[in-house]
């Protein structure tokens, strides 16, 4: 059974060796799909036995789906893992012991994902553990074509593992806020697309299969997106921090829930408003406005 891991990178010298180390013994090949890093990422990848491929970045989904086309034909399973993530011993053991016996009709495997923020594992707020599909049969899955918050989708049945992967970024808070400023532009594109329909809508949203990712996406698109901009960010933060007791995560948790649960989502709404104002003031169409205001060039 051949498992190939795909790691997307850009300047990930702080995290890559740790990520690769957690994959040793369970994957047959590690593919580092890089978008022209300028630090030691490529040297670390090669020194740790990974195969490096490079491709110009468009979006996370486009980069991952391109990487899928570069895999060997004898690949059985694909594992998606981010450079700042690592697999826990429980998930490693579960993959080793359970995956070989899974029937051929099963297309994907869900596991849990947790996150740390400023060195603290976030346990409250109703955010984690998040159930994510990160392991799937080669040729039966791909990344949904979205600008932000993309998930792997498969058509066939899935199974659930109990093991976890941990998202543990070692970067500074300044780096985190700069990254989320860029993320906010991408998420604004997805929200605007729900309203204007300027590109195909690719989504795992579903209430039928009961999977956490499908239910959360449905709530985000059918409930959250319909609430007034700005107000919905405050409502979401109140739900996480008060009702789901995010305050129990301590000082680091307060920073996380406020920045990720309110500041980031309010920033998304503010960018949506900015695009709409530009359209109103200049008579520009939605695609041009997104380019001029957000600096995001949509694929033609």
From TrEMBL:
Which residue intervals define the domain Glycosyltransferase 2-like in the entry? 5-99
User: Which GO MF terms are attached to this record?
Assistant: transferase activity
Question: Any transmembrane segments, and where?
Answer: none
Pfam families for this protein:
Glycos_transf_2 (PF00535)
Q: Which keywords does this Swiss-Prot/TrEMBL entry list?
A: Transferase
Which InterPro entries does the UniProt entry name for this protein? Glyco_trans_2-like, Nucleotide-diphossugar_trans
Question: Which CDD domains does this UniProt record tie to the protein?
Answer: Beta4Glucosyltransferase
Q: Which family does it belong to?
A: Belongs to the glycosyltransferase 2 family. WaaE/KdtX subfamily.
Instruction: Indicate what this protein is called per its UniProt record.
Output: Glycosyl transferase family 2
Which organism encodes this protein?
Pelodictyon phaeoclathratiforme (strain DSM 5477 / BU-1)
Q: What is the lineage of its organism?
A: Bacteria, Pseudomonadati, Chlorobiota, Chlorobiia, Chlorobiales
């Amino acid at each position: 059974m051949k498992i190939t891991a795909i790691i997307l990178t850009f300047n990930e010298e702080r995290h890559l060796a740790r990520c690769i180390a957690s994959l040793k013994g369970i994957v047959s090949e590690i593919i580092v799909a890089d978008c022209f890093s300028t630090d030691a990422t490529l040297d670390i990848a090669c020194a740790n036995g990974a195969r490096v491929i490079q491709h110009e970045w468009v979006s996370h989904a486009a980069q991952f789906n391109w990487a899928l086309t570069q895999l060997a034909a004898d690949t059985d399973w694909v594992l998606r893992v981010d450079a700042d993530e690592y697999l826990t011993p429980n998930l490693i053991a579960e993959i080793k012991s359970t995956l070989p016996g899974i029937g051929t009709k099963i297309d994907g495997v869900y596991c849990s994902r947790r996150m740390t923020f400023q060195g603290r594992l976030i346990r409250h707020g109703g955010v984690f553990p998040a159930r994510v599909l990160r392991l799937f049969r080669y040729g039966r899955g791909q990344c949904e074509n979205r600008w932000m918050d993309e998930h792997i989708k498969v058509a066939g049945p899935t199974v659930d593992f109990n093991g976890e992967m941990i998202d543990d970024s070692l970067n500074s808070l300044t780096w985190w806020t700069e990254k989320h400023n860029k993320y906010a532009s991408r998420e604004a594109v997805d929200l605007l697309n729900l309203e204007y329909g300027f590109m195909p809508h690719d989504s795992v949203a579903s209430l039928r299969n009961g999977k956490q990712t499908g239910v959360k996406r449905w709530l985000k698109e059918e409930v959250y997106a319909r609430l007034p901009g700005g107000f919905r960010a405050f409502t979401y933060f109140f739900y996480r921090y008060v009702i789901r007791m995010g305050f129990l995560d301590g000082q680091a948790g307060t920073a996380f829930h406020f920045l990720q649960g309110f500041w980031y989502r309010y920033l998304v709404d503010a960018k949506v408003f900015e695009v709409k104002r530009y359209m109103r003031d200049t008579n520009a169409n939605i695609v041009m406005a997104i380019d001029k205001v957000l600096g995001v060039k949509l694929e033609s």
